[in-house]
Amino acid sequence: MTISRVIASLSVLVALPQGAGAQDARQVAISVDAGKAVGKLPPVWRFFGADEPNYATMKDGRKLLIELGELKKGQVYFRAHNLLSSGDGTAAFKWGSTNAYTETKDGKPVYNWAIVDGIIDAYLAEGIRPYLQIGFTPEAMANAPAGTPYRHSWRPGFAYNLIATGWTYPPKDYEKWAELIHQWTLHNIERYGRAEVEKWYFEVWNEPNSPFYWSASPEEFYKLHDYAIAAVRKALPTARVGGPDVAGPGGTFMDGFLKHVSSGKNYATGETGTPTDFLSFHAKGKPTFVDGHVRMGIATHLRETDGGFTKVLSIPSLAGKPVVIGESDPEGCAACPGPANAYRNGTMYSSYTAASFARIWELAERRKVNLEGVVSWSFEFEDQPWFAGYRQLSTNGVDLPVLNVFRLFAQLGETKLATTNDAQVPLDVLMKNGVQGDADIGSIATRTADGKVALLVWHYHDDDVAGPDAQIRLSLNGIKGKPAQAKLWRVDGDHANAFSAWKKMGSPQSPNQDQYKQLEAASVMHAETLPVATGQRGGASVDLRLPRQGVALIVIDGQ
């Protein structure tokens, strides 16, 4: 099947009705007490990442970095694989390289920071900071069996295990490994300044509990980790270090790692334990393809999240450490398109993102976990077919609906307000069964820094099929004054949605200049106004109709 026919089939699968005008709308009541704070809502959503580091310096990658940096200037972080992999810096699926380390014929190290500097420069230019992943093993250093290729040649459709080539092996010489990291850290301090580098996160490798990423024993990884952390701290004693960014909650591997860093003998220093400023694991959902449509796996995603929280709380000396979910996504492979992943182009991805982040916040609060970050493993894929179904935030430089949800997150305050909602699926039900009956029409209300009330509302179901709209009555108490109107931002089939616009223009794979501008314009959210009915004693109400898979933000003056 040609790529154009694949794209066409994906478009049909995702082009399901966003609302169901012939069906009666579901009546939903949401009540917010603007005068009652009930906790904090940390901005954990401000972390992003990608396998392919070199896209950050390419045209569409640079454009997207600008947009990510604008979400929360100076507080957005980016994690990337392959920052120490050997190669010429040419990007490919699930691959990247910087050639930071080579050796002379007689085995002496040669350091070259030009490519990796360019990547970090691109982040910092837009107010984005590195969540610096130390890896993978440079070719000259990798202890791979003779004849093992260093770089993989994986592409979409190939077996996933083909990515596990020479870069997955530990170093032959740990002193050289440590010195590489020590010199890199010294260089970063010299180039960017100590105060800047102190704000970064430093972690070693990716998913060392997975045979796709680590071709050695758990103990060998602990050694790799110890030497790397010791090298960073030698150059910068105040560096923020942690890990291990395991796949899922980590199982027995995570148990062993936590025991090692808390009470084991450090391979590099001989001391007890390894410095640990934060802990990290990954959590993914599991969509399936059922009766011609996608059924999301939000329950799996949340169970993995809860499992990871349970792990990091299992060692008392580590239980209060900040936690970063180093990859948190609806499924596993960003570079894998196909019918089951075509939902990424449209509003299923955006509504899932709103619903899943809300429950991750709720789980962290329930477990009393110090959740600091949630990394969305989604960036962009340079010069690929339009709306090809990759897990990304933009396509050919045009934003997808999911990116607008992060813009809505950015407008939320960090103080939660007391809220009741008669249509939000309870957390325990959602973790057990997902959303298989009535849709999850959920909400989070917050107080912003300037005193306004910001309410996020989403209309989510696991099944990517049509359903009735939600007719929402928002009642607010504790509002001072009598606001006449509220501001509204929408992400749905008809708002802030370049995918819908692209289909309406015939799904062109080579949009001309005018069409490109139209797609850019269609991706932009625009503020609307909603009338506010005011009552006695600080009461007010707002009515909103929200289609299936819609996400909206209502901001009202709460002074």
From TrEMBL:
<comment type="similarity">
    <text>Belongs to the glycosyl hydrolase 39 family.</text>
</comment>
<protein>
    <submittedName>
        <fullName>Beta-xylosidase</fullName>
    </submittedName>
</protein>
<feature type="signal peptide">
    <location>
        <begin position="1"/>
        <end position="22"/>
    </location>
</feature>
<dbReference type="InterPro" id="IPR051923">
    <property type="entry name" value="Glycosyl_Hydrolase_39"/>
</dbReference>
<dbReference type="InterPro" id="IPR017853">
    <property type="entry name" value="GH"/>
</dbReference>
<keyword id="KW-0326">Glycosidase</keyword>
<keyword id="KW-0378">Hydrolase</keyword>
<dbReference type="InterPro" id="IPR000514">
    <property type="entry name" value="Glyco_hydro_39"/>
</dbReference>
<dbReference type="Pfam" id="PF01229">
    <property type="entry name" value="Glyco_hydro_39"/>
</dbReference>
<feature type="domain" description="Glycosyl hydrolases family 39 N-terminal catalytic">
    <location>
        <begin position="29"/>
        <end position="535"/>
    </location>
</feature>
<dbReference type="InterPro" id="IPR049165">
    <property type="entry name" value="GH39_as"/>
</dbReference>
<keyword id="KW-0732">Signal</keyword>
<dbReference type="InterPro" id="IPR049166">
    <property type="entry name" value="GH39_cat"/>
</dbReference>
